Amino acid sequence: MTRSYSTIAWGASVDKGVQPDVQYGYKATTTAGTVFNIFNALGTVAFAYAGHNVVLEIQATMPSTPENPSKAPMWKGVIAAYVAIAICYFPVALIGFWIFGNEVNENIFIALEKPVWLIAMANLFVVVHLIGGYQVLHYTDLYFNFITWSSQAYALRMIAAFTMFFAITFPFFAGLLGFFGGFSFAPTTYFLPCIMWLAIYKPKKFSLSWFANWICIVFGVVLMIMAPIGGLKLIIDQAKGYKFYS
């Protein structure tokens, strides 16, 4: 699904062509606005490339022995997954910015508009992709057997209904991505795994691995603090002229 709608996004952008009077500078007119936008952008990147929390659960279900540890195929799978993600997302980001400049819409399909049938198909692919995300949540919870099947099915429907209501009521896509990317995914992606690794393996102080993990920890903590601030600032700016369900 990701390859489908991302290919439509950058392919339709190329077909649309570079827009007249396109600008590639900073969108904000003040230094403070630019800084907040950078914070939000970092949170958005963290959201797009988060996934380490799911990786741990996947590896836990794989057979592993001292002779054939699960980390070997898992490492190959992670590399392949992130290469695939980069192939999907980087063309959209680079070509979208090339075509529309700093006025690119947070939802590039809105900026494309035509052909209508192709944009509708891309949005359908996005919906199918998101529905698949609920299934991942469903089976993950079943594996750990936290709640019964019937209760979980009910809870899953409630989560889906709530997220749909929230998305319709507060359609601040770019700000929410940055906010949750920093607040939710920065810890699980950048610094909590590093803290656990340091606590378990206890590498020699000031060694390369020790430095690398502490750099990730510091970066992750800063990202967790700054990205939600940038996202919240963008949401506040967008909410000033927003009317519910208008």
TrEMBL record:
It comes from the Eukaryota. Residues 5-230 form the Amino acid transporter transmembrane domain. The chain crosses the membrane at residues 79-100, 115-134, 154-173, 179-199, 211-236. Coiled coil: none annotated. Pfam families: Aa_trans. One of its GO terms (biological process) is amino acid transport. The keyword Cytoplasm does not apply. GO terms for cellular component: membrane. It is found in: Membrane. Keywords: Amino-acid transport, Membrane, Transmembrane, Transmembrane helix, Transport. PANTHER family: OS05G0424000 PROTEIN-RELATED (PTHR48017). This is Lysine histidine transporter 1-like. It comes from Olea europaea subsp. europaea.
